[in-house]
Design brief:
Structural class: mainly beta
Helix content: under 10%
Strand order of the largest sheet: 1-2-3-4
Number of strands: 12
Order of helices and strands: EEEEEEEEEEEE
Distance between the termini: 47 Å
Shape: globular
Strand content: 25-35%
């Protein structure tokens, strides 16, 4: 039977793909062939992340942050205080950052030990923003206002406008 994958797949530096699907983590070659498939302890709700050394990280409903090496062999499992529904991000030094439904932001070392945690005011269900890749700006450059032209600009046949309001709370 076909598995349902909720989160976006992660792309490895070699072009391979890792996907979190129901209670399975699946690794595919750049050509789309199955490399390995591993059953997890709980249901997966978000995308996995791939660390700088090729380690695959993911959280699940059993409260576990799990780490698998490039062959799908378990490296460690860290138990958080609640299910992990959002994705994870990996810093350049290999520290994994994620949030859980207990409202805690966790930082876990590459060996699976807790580096620090921070209690927020509510459950965390979204993924952290991963750090920029080497030589990429942390934010997009600011657009400059175009110079006026004398020729009229044709309107597009259809136009979609998306907007979002972001509220940030700091302690």
């Amino acid at each position: 039977h076909k598995l349902h994958c909720l989160g976006a797949p992660a792309v490895a530096t070699d072009g391979g793909v890792v996907a979190a699907c129901q209670d399975q983590v699946i690794a595919l070659s750049p050509e789309g062939n199955l490399r390995w498939q591993v059953a997890t302890q709980g249901e997966l709700s978000a995308a996995p992340a791939i660390g700088p050394d090729g380690t695959v990280y993911f959280g699940d409903d059993s409260r576990r942050l799990s780490a698998l090496d490039g062959q799908g062999v378990a490296r460690f499992s860290f138990i958080s205080g609640a299910p992990i529904r959002g994705g994870v991000a990996v810093r350049a030094d290999g520290v994994v950052i994620f949030g859980a439904l207990d409202g805690v932001i966790y930082a876990v070392r590459p060996d699976g030990s807790l580096l620090w945690s921070y209690q927020t005011g509510d459950a965390i269900v979204a993924a952290p923003t991963p750090p920029p890749r080497t030589n990429e700006p942390a934010v997009a450059p600011v657009a400059t206002k175009p110079k006026p032209t004398t020729a009229p600009v044709a309107a597009p046949a259809t136009e979609t406008v998306a907007s979002a309001e972001t509220k940030t709370k700091f302690p």
